[in-house]
Amino acid sequence: MSRIPSKPEILDWIAANPTLTAKRDIAKAFGIKGAARIDLKRLLRELEDEGHLEKRKRSYQDPDRLPPVSILQVLAPDKNGDLFARPLEWHGEGVEPVVLMITRTSDPALGEGDRILARLTVVTAEDHNYEARMIRRVGSNPKKILGVFRKTAEGGRILPVDKGADKEWQVSADATGGARDGELVEAELAGPARMGLPRARIVERLGDPSAPKAVSLIAIRQHGIPDDFPDEVVAEADAMKPMGLKGREDLRDMPLITIDPWDARDHDDACYAHPDDDPKNEGGHIIWVAIADVAAYVTPGSALDREARKRGNSTYFPDRVVPMLPDRLSGDLCSLHEGVPRACIAVRMQIDAHGEKISHHFVRGLMRSPASLNYEEVQAAIDGNPNDRCGPLLEPVLQPLYDAYAALVKARHLRQPLELDLPERQIVLEDDGTVSSVNFKERLDAHRLIEEFMVLANVAAAETLIAKKQPLLFRVHEEPSPEKLNALRETALEAGFPLAKGQVLKTMHLNRLLAAAAGSEDAELINISTLRSMMQAYYGPQNFGHFGLALRNYAHFTSPIRRYADLIVHRALVTAHGWGKDGLKPEDIERLEETGQHISDTERRSMVAERDTTDRYLASYLSERVGDEFTGRISGVAKFGAFVKLDDSGADGLVPIRTLGREFFHFDREAGTLMGADTGLTISIGQRVTARLTEAAPVTGGIALELLSVDGDKMPQGGSRSPAGRAPRRKVAKGKRKADKIKRKVSRKRS
After folding, report:
1. Residue 518 DSSP class
2. Can you give the pTM of this predicted structure?
3. Which stretches are tagged as biased composition: Basic residues (predicted)?
4. Which helix (H) or strand (E) holds 134?
5. How many Å apart are CA 290 and CA 354, to the nearest integer?
6. Which of 140, 153, 224, 477 has its CA 20 to 30 Å from the CA of residue 437?
7. How far apart are CA 508 and CA 415, in angstroms?
8. Is 370 in contact with 349 (CB distance < 8 Å)?
9. Among 272-276, 362-366, 407-411, 667-671, which stretch is predicted with the lowest mean pLDDT?
10. How far, in whole angstroms, is CA 80 from its chain's centroid?
11. CA torsion sign, 209 to 215 to 217 to 222?
């Protein structure tokens, strides 16, 4: 029998091997096999509960600091010539730790972008938290830049489009690639720096950076999202033919309708419901959810499969989509278009009158949707205003869907998934790509109906594969860490809302907090703080449940056109049911963990690219309103300034610290505040502010603001060096009271 290590032995191993901290690494180190892994898992869970470890995805780390040996990315030297590095293994909340490089004469020369393995030492210094000594170089990121070319007599310079970059690149006359002044270009590092600027060679000209359709193109290039399909992938897709009925259940007479946004590019899910005629299930319903059978076309190991896995998911921008699959599949053969037969995998689910699922089973079928509808027209029909398309479907199809949904709502109330109220922005474009308006999307019961049906189908897929002992990728959302939960509790208490301590956290506890704050001036703050306390969801072969949805078993099954994770689940269902040879292969199973990590990364890449694009569109939209005043709320605080989220557009702008007045502002990292040394003015997350727009740069997406008032009080004009003198004593007293309150909060947190 394997010997189970003690808790000190486990902690010593993790401290000595910071890059080998997954459960399987620990098990391998101590020779733990078979059933003994359960005891190891119990020990690790106890160490988590005791606060010694924090689980990050499938590995364990000390939650309070960076690993003693970490991967760092070298940054450009600062104005004093000091070399700093960014910790790539930092996943905490708040401001990222600052790492100073301590170089030795024997170390190789390091440049911006180099990745190194370094040994870290915790220090207490004004401008950094760690000192790092290089162990070895582990490689460099490709040194490329996207920017605007400015022609000079010596060649030119490139102004980066990344709002986080502050250094230009120099281009010699023979490396411009024919670029014109003002063009958007992509360049790569061409040699050592001259006059302090990196030397670059232009590799591609991308046109006018101010053109509306360049906005998403910048994000695509900047984040390395593949947007051109290789010829072999397109050829493979073009050779595909529609699937027939052979080996499938005939669902063509079932009125499975699709309900999507009015501008949907694809339709990968359809649904139908009717009352259950089983006398043992009075008031119950039968719900069918049918999903495009992408697995029948994208088979393991094919060119289509390799490209889909590489992309991981589709990426959506206001003006375009970068799809996971070529249009022949995503827009045609795998899209459940109205009136045409389409291959599908469908699940029949029986629920009782209270919305609880009684049973379910999957079939591989052939369907033909009678209608492709949008959310707005479906909701209008239910509300008594059916159009010509929805009128004939109202009684036989739409009303039974809503009846089944009403039952699912009852089950949802009992389950208590997290009920965040964070309106989603919608950027509306003109035909030429310019922004016509920025709205907040309306949430209809039609949206919620489809969401509940899809959640139920995803649960059914996970439960089926678990029962059949078939490996799969789960959608995992773990509970908040103790540190994040404590930060949320402090924020809630500061706003006057209690969050109970000393109990196993459930979503219903957070929902009580959200409900208590609803309608108050702190509602948005509490919603944002709750969201920030959540762990990031990911894909993995181990089932740790979905905290946010309050579900024990959950997998993504309903969107295989746009998510590779769903395609994996479809293949797992094919294998589990013995439907064909296009299921999950042994080699796919062996690399499920690697695949889960990869597609979790591509999902985050898409999210960042979509966010950056939104920022640029918002900056473009606001560029005509420079000088106007806006209301908003402090959404973040950093050493270099404060961030403000504007009420009317949801745009985030930066208030540079240099614009806050002539006094010195002290940044408290733990409290998350900026406090004036002379006036005592304290700036912290959640405060209501009025700000003037001073800059909006569409190319970078940067928005700069000047604070005019905080919580209804005008900004002090003074500071010890200000001609206007110090702020009135009333403001000083108020600022100091707030500062003392925050200090007490930090003191409680430390104790």
Report:
1. T
2. 0.74
3. 727-751
4. strand 130-140
5. 23
6. 224
7. 8
8. no
9. 667-671
10. 36
11. positive
